[in-house]
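Hello again, I could really use a second opinion on something today. I owe you a coffee for this, so here goes:
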Amino acid sequence: MLSKEHIILKQLHWAKRNNIDLVGSKITRGRKTYTKTLNENLFEPLSKKTKKDIEGGDGGELRGSDTSSPKIHALHSSSAIGVNFLQYWNKKNVSDLAYALGLFQKDSKYPKKIRFEQKYKISKSFGTSPNIDAVIINNEDCKFKAFGIECKFTEAYSSSHPGLKEKYITDIPKQWDDIPELFKLGKSLCPNDNHYNHLHPAQLIKHILGMKKKYGKSKFKLLYLWYDAIGHEGSNHRKEIEAFSKIAKKDSVNFSAISYQELLAKINANLYDGNEEYINYMMERYF
């Protein structure tokens, strides 16, 4: 069984166990993998700030119609799983999440808040800026001003992904000066990515370029948060993550990766007391 199908079936079983009726992407058409209401797909409702962030993103996650389900209603939505795992900690202790993600030592004083769908401009001449799924904003006195988090669910096991457009190679030469290895990789991904089957390195490179321009190379970290899968697809995905990590390290770019399963295991082992409802929901649905 292919990894994407395995993940979707697991989500369908979760919905059935919880008596959640499903509809298709076109409401009456398409595979029934979408919840009728947003809250049925979330651990807790969107906060006002999170909703505003997502509405400001370019993905149209919350937009639907009488004949079309919003993207975030999908059981396999990367936006939904990101919100489910991350939003909760805004009202608890963001430093606990940062610790579980491997970004800080336990009880750090620096993490301040979590924002979603944040944009970091790479060049004024570019019409749009890439959206980072989530960002942990740190206090002013922290060495690292922000941690970008790119969230993936089934995308790594789905269709092919685009490469890097030529403008990123030709129009911003100075922004590549201190990341020559990533520049070499970027050129190999332009205009098409014929090297990576699961990881989307062009997207990660754009996030690095944007955050580097905003904060400087040493003042941010980029984290890849993904859903691990059994079988050869999951194994190959992990190898591609490792390959990209080595390239980023050569350029002294702060990049790391952790699976949702690893994150949940660490939260369960270290932060269960006081977070029982949250952890039990995540364990039943995603572990």
